[in-house]
Amino acid sequence: MASEKNYSPWVDPSLPKVFGAAWVMLADSTSTLYAQLGWIEYAGGVRRLFSEAGNATTGNFNIQYYNPTPAINSVTTVEVSYQPNNNDRYDYYVNGTIYGAQRPSRELHTRVG
User: Fold this and answer.
1) Taking the model in full, what pTM does it have?
2) Number of domains observed in the structure of the chain
């Protein structure tokens, strides 16, 4: 669990693949399987709350976006938890509310608010 500051970084509009972001990540002991939750902002002020679960060895990953995105200048508590007895699922929480669940490189379940 971590507290993330939600701010609006300047992102160069001439570089379309550049972004600002903050997230927490949980990885297995080999740093192969991972899950992360945070916010991302692209040029023009387009901000999204996202989660991603993947396999760093194969490069396979699932990404999901959620609404609403936390307000700028707020602090959000985010958490990624691993559920080994529930199909190896990662659960994503924002301010104590579950936002989604994923299994790395497999199916994806989400709540879009």
Assistant:
1) 0.81
2) 1
